[in-house]
Every structure is written in C-alpha cells, then in structure tokens.
Amino acid sequence: MKKTIITFILGVIGITSFGQNLTFYGLLPVINQTGRISKKFNYNAFVSSTIDAFDSKWNNVEYKPTDLQLYVQPSVIYVHSPKFNLAASYTYQRNNPFNQVAAANPSSAAFNNEHRLWQQAIFSFPISKGRLTNRFRFEERFIQQKDNGYAVSNDYHFFTRLRYQLAFNMPLQGKTLDEKEFYLSAYNEFYFSLTGPKNVTGAKNATYNENWSYIGTGYNFGKKGRLELGYLMQSFVRNTNKDLRILQLAQVMWVTNFDFFKKTCKKK
What predicted TM-score, i.e. pTM, was given to this entire model? Predict the structure, then answer.
C-alpha cells in the first residue's frame, strides 16, 4: 500500500513541476454504462463533457466559460477471469484547442476533431481491504484541427500514445460493497506520447506529456447504479517549453450495470 501511495504522489509531482502553467476550474459530468453480452463479453458506454466553469485571464488572454471537451467511448470487453480482461474501442473526442480564437469567442467553431482506436489490458487483484487495478492502454489517434469551421489541414495527423493507470477501490463499510453503502475510489494515470508531429494541438511536446489524478467517494444504490463524486486534476504539457495546462475538476459520475445476457436467459 505504501508503494502505491508513493507512486501516486510522484506521478502528480513529476508532471506539475514544469514551467509556467495555465489553470482552469470546472465540472466533469460522466455517464458510465456497463452490460453483459455473454459469459465472456461485456460492453461499456462512457460519455463525458468537460466544462470550464469560470472566467480566467492568462498571459493577457481572457478565457470564457465553455464546454472544453465532448468524449464518447463505446468499448467491448473480453473477460478472461475476475483478475484479467482485454478491451478495444473506437472513441470520438472533440476538444476546444485553448487558442486565442476559441478563448475570445467560445461559441466559435474553433476545435479539434479526434477519432481514436485503442486496445487495453487490465490486471486486478485484492489488496488490504480493497482492490488494486493496473490498466495498460495503447492508442492510435487521428487528429484534425479546425479554426472557425475550416480545417487548418484536411489531413488527420496520426499519433500513438501509451497510458498506464494505477487504481484503488475500497468499500468503506465491511469487506464487500453492498447496496446502500459507500466506497472510496482513487487513481493516477500516466500518459506517454510515442509518435506524432509537433505542430498540432495534442502533439508530442514531451514523451511523458499528461497526468490525471483522481480521488472520490461513491454510494451504491443497488439496481439503480452508483453515484460517485470526486476531485480530478488533469495536467497536460501544452508546448515545447514544458508549460502546463491544468484542469481542476469536480467529477460527477453515474455508474450503471445492465446484464443483457441474464435477462435474455430468463425470457427463454
């Protein structure tokens, strides 16, 4: 457990120790839906919207409140065992590029389109009173910049990225999470940009170019799902000077499960 905490802290300190930063504060609402397709396959639908909630001014540029990111991620999961699973996905992401055009007029059509494919492996095991999860994800990213509705380039620039997430979940009452009980959830995720050009937002400005740190608590409503509230800090290396864009976010997530396989068997 001590090693887990030390790794978490070093991940945060390691990326936030760079130069001059831009910091924004906002809200991250999330819907996380998981369902069982068969004995070995599940699906997941993850949808979120990152909202910059306050006016701010950095380097004489005023940033107005706006929706910074739309994220839509359906995935298919192969469950090999309770300790190991594999997954793959197509993801669509639309980003506000944090440039002066978008800052001056948040309603403008300055944004980045990203189409992403990824593959991942998850290893998890019980530790102390909770469960420790290791997630390895490899991404193939296709990014197109747009400014006022016109593509800066009609081409989609290709990037690859590796992500490693170390997560810990623990029930706060008893040894297992039962209905009408609270739980703790925390993770740190390290982002490593492997390939891609440096002239595109989201480019390889550093190999270790992004870090997400999260801690939150949730309540299990049983069949209705779980409601989780927490604090998420996203740090991103935004240029070759190693300056950061930091998002301090209040995350609100509704987690639901739907066992399609079980319901189909009952009907038969």
Answer: 0.83
